[in-house]
Design goal:
The chain is mainly α. It has two helices and no strands.
Length: 77
Amino acid sequence: MARQIGETNGRGTRTMENIAYIRQMLGELRAVAENEGAEMLCYLIEMAFVEAGDVQSGRRSLTILNGERNKSPRMPV
């Protein structure tokens, strides 16, 4: 996605419109999953919905850089 002039909190207007669209579609998909009784799918869609809302509000960036991720505790599995 290309960024456009007219930045909104460091993010392009077009990008934010796309995030809003994605969030709206996730809400609709969640309703479909709920009607089908797909509880795990509902949960995963809800998590994506929350993430999209965090991006919209500026609480979360669009990408996760390697330096910002939680480090592995290097514990054997």
